[in-house]
Design goal:
584 residues, ABC transporter transmembrane region fold, Rossmann fold, 20 helices, 12 strands, ABC1_TM_dom, membrane, ATP hydrolysis activity
Length: 584
């Protein structure tokens, strides 16, 4: 009974901590592997065949050696055996090459599928929860970590099966001919297993540290490239060069620590392997000297002992690969486990479609009643905000920076959910519709920050309406007062845009963003400081066009500009989280 209790205690310890995490992570990895069962089975079969040919070569080497050193040399037989030995090696080499091709093709497919799944989950994740991750860190997870995990599909389980077969077959053959030799060849096994078990935790921590440092370095590079203009404008080249050196030093230190740890462990493993090989050689020489075996059997023993030791080392070598893959999987799962935005139920989707049809060309009424929101318990941003915007109205939100204007627009877009109050959309003949992530199709949005995408101007505009023809693009550009400068470009609407709209001014990029939003033809238009880079005259023309040329669309604008306030039907002043209607 005490033995069973002791075994249960050991099993409970194995299930705790990182081993339990590894099991969860490996389970997630092999959900992808199940889709390629046929290819994985073929890979294992070819690997087993190649391993079998290697064992056959060892057995054939004994016959070849006997034929060479025998009293009656038959050179024809020696030549045939030598040719057979070479042929086995060539076939094994071809099988290895074929397996390499199969694993590469499947790994690439798995990597593409995994990247697509992870990227889609990024897009579906709750916006607030996703803000905890730097975009460079997310990029590291969807590229480097996914690549590591995808490569492990063939690097773990199939390799484990093949290496176990190689190890077991060699062990059985050696046991058949000389049990003592088999025991000597396995001398390192208990030490290696205990050694690996003790170091798995440290190896996992090293992997986490290296991957975290690499993600931090990638995030720094991505942020620096995004802000290159500011770095040059403020003459920060030297400072950012120094900061890169610091980030690189952190990554280098983590990598070198892991490298030193790996060298120490692999050197110890190699020393044990060499000690076992020398012991097997000494035993073989002794058996040959005492006449128990002949030279041919001695040659076969040495080959089999080498394969046995190599097979065992390969099995142990799978442990670092498994740890690397599971650490990468854990980093991916940390993002995949984030809360997701609610899916749109069919009945709700139909209500949104009816509301969109009712508001198209007529606008919708947007009503907020005592809405409150805070990013943290001690950080209230909106306190019992009430607001009304009717069809055809231009409603302005005023207030100092950081008072909550952009936060209010995020509530309307369903990016964040208020902790109190209600926000609803209304249309004649339709049931009131609460604002949420599901109601985004009813809004067109121009963000405060630049939102330019690579490609031509036409491709950027058609992001929100792929079926828009050139005439529709021209109308949207004219309404946004952008057609004049676009038409002067060498290729017009087919002019390629640089990254983040490089080559255009801030005002030109803002007008293109407004034109893109207009193509959505949504009942409610949200402009977050969307005219801040325009001169007063152009700003006034854009706003007049929005009010006169777009039917009864409801328009809400955040701004600091008197031009906007003068044209607004209603102005709401946001101060210390509260809203008051009236002049600024």
């Amino acid at each position: 009974m005490s033995i069973l209790a002791g075994m249960k205690k050991i099993w409970d310890k194995l299930r705790e901590g990182y081993l339990q995490e590894m099991c969860q992570e490996l389970g997630w990895i092999y959900r992808y592997a199940r889709r390629y069962r046929g290819q994985i089975a073929l890979y294992i079969a070819l690997g087993l065949l190649a391993a079998g040919l290697g064992l056959g070569g060892s057995l054939l080497s004994r016959t070849l050696t006997t034929a060479v050193v025998g009293a009656h040399r038959a050179w024809g037989e020696v030549a045939a055996l030598a040719a057979g030995y070479v042929l086995l090696g060539l076939v094994a080499l071809g099988l290895s090459a074929l397996n390499s091709r199969i694993s590469t093709k499947v790994n690439l497919k798995i990597q593409n599928e995994m990247q697509a799944d992870v990227f889609r989950r990024f897009l579906q994740a709750d916006w607030s929860a996703l803000q905890a991750f730097h975009s460079g860190d997310l990029l590291s997870r969807v590229t480097g970590d996914v690549g590591t995990v995808a490569g492990s599909v063939f690097g773990l389980l199939p390799s484990l099966v093949i290496r176990l077969f190689q190890f077991s077959a060699c062990l059985i053959l050696i046991l058949w001919y000389d049990p003592v030799m088999a025991l000597l060849a396995l001398l390192s096994a208990p030490v290696t297993l205990l050694f690996s078990r003790a170091l798995m935790g440290r190896m996992r921590e090293h992997q986490k540290r290296v991957r975290g440092a690499n993600a931090q370095l990638m995030a720094f590079h991505e942020e620096a490239l995004q802000n290159m203009q500011a770095i040059k404008a403020f003459d920060l080249t030297g400072r950012f060069t120094a900061r890169e050196g610091e980030e690189q030093a952190c990554w280098r230190e983590a990598s070198l620590d892991f490298n030193r740890f790996s060298i120490l462990t692999s050197s110890l493993m190699s020393l044990m392997g060499q000690a076992v090989s020398y012991t097997c050689l000494a035993w073989g020489v002794y058996r040959l000297w005492t006449g128990y075996i002949d030279l041919a059997l001695m040659v076969m023993f040495l080959q089999l002992a080498g394969q046995l030791s190599a097979g065992f080392s390969a099995l142990v070598g799978l442990v670092p690969g498994a740890i690397s893959a599971t650490v990468a999987a854990r980093r991916i799962l940390a993002v995949l486990d984030l809360p997701r935005e609610p899916e749109v139920a069919p009945t709700l989707a139909r209500r949104v479609e009816r509301m969109a049809a009712a508001g198209r060309g007529k606008g919708l009424t947007l009503r907020l009643d005592r809405v409150s929101f805070r990013y943290a318990p001690d950080r209230p941003v909106l306190e019992e905000v009430s607001l009304l915007a009717r069809p055809g109205e231009l409603v302005a939100l005023a207030g100092a920076s950081g008072e909550g204007k952009t936060t209010l627009l995020r509530v309307l877009l369903g990016l964040i959910r208020p902790q109190g109050g209600t926000a609803i959309l209304q249309a004649p003949g339709e049931e009131d519709l609460p604002v949420s992530a599901c109601t985004r199709p009813l809004f067109a949005y121009v963000p405060q920050e630049k939102a330019a995408f690579s490609g031509t101007i036409a491709e950027s505009l058609r992001l929100l309406r792929p079926d828009a023809d050139d005439q529709m693009l021209e109308e949207a550009l004219r309404t946004a007062c952008a057609y004049e400068f676009v038409s002067r470009l060498p290729q017009g609407i087919h002019t390629p845009l640089g990254e983040q709209g490089a080559g255009l001014s801030e005002g030109q990029n803002q007008r293109l963003s407004i034109a893109r939003a207009l193509l959505r033809d949504a009942p409610v238009l949200l402009l977050d400081e969307a005219t801040s880079a325009l001169d007063a005259e152009t700003e006034a023309r854009v706003l007049r066009n929005l009010l006169t040329g777009q039917g009864g669309r409801t328009c809400i604008v955040t701004s600091h500009r008197p031009t906007v306030f003068a044209m607004a039907d209603r102005v709401y002043q946001i101060r210390e989280g509260r809203v008051e209607e009236g002049p600024c």
